[in-house]
Amino acid sequence: RYKSVVTPRRAAVAIACCWIVSFLVGLTPMFGWNNLSKMRRTQELNSSHTDFVIKCQFETVISMEYMVYFNFFVWVLPPLLLMLLIYLEVFNLIRKQLNKKVSSSSNDPQKYYGKELKIAKSLALVLFLFALSWLPLHILNCITLFCPSCQTPHILTYVAIFLTHGNSAMNPIVYAFRIKKFRTAFLHIWNQYFCCKTNKSTGTTTAELEN
Predict the structure, then answer these.
(1) Which residue has the higher pLDDT, 206 or 124?
(2) What is the reported pLDDT for 203?
(3) Do 29 and 63 form a contact (C-beta atoms < 8 A)?
(4) Rounded mean pLDDT, 152-168
(5) Is the pTM of the predicted complex or chain greater than 0.85?
(6) What's the CA gap between 195 and 209, in Å, rounded?
(7) G-protein coupled receptors family 1 profile domain location, by residue (predicted)?
């Protein structure tokens, strides 16, 4: 039923919704949920007549309430746990099918479900890398919010932020190495791009020779 349920239109709508939600969640601090008002109140209490200067550090500018309660507890942890449960159910169903060796549209059910298991493992690896990349930063944010007296080295925060950005570069690599269809598509796009360049240059050269 996959082709009837996941139509190109529905896939496009789902992707668009994901991007819109991501923009709204990511830009929330720019809409006002930040530490600007807190820093201004602190300066007023100190009765300082010096110019208002913001120290450009992640924990100074970004509100930890936003990062922990809104970002982590709403938009990261619940989807992560939900995806974990879904993958556990997928692996359980595939394992049952492999044990039963039920008939399918394929001539070799063992090979068919073995292929499904390989794809599921690849997607589970993507989920694992996501958790590995994002959880360190959110754990540090929880420590900062719930234990204000605890001092965490800034280098750990920088490394955690670097991991979150690096996660976006990991997924295409995992897809290309683990899933044949993705690898074929990447190679096709790569070759098509350079073939177009080659064809253009060849066409120009041919035209010049004819002239």
Answers:
(1) 124
(2) 45
(3) yes
(4) 90
(5) no
(6) 21
(7) 1-175
Dist. CA 117–CA 93, nearest whole Å: 10
Whole-number average pLDDT of the chain:
84
- Per the CB < 8 A criterion, the answer to whether 57 and 34 are in contact is no
Spans of all domains in the chain: 1-62, 63-195
| CATH-assigned architecture of domain 63-195 | Up-down Bundle (1.20)
Site of tokens 């690896």: 125
pLDDT attached to residue 204: 45
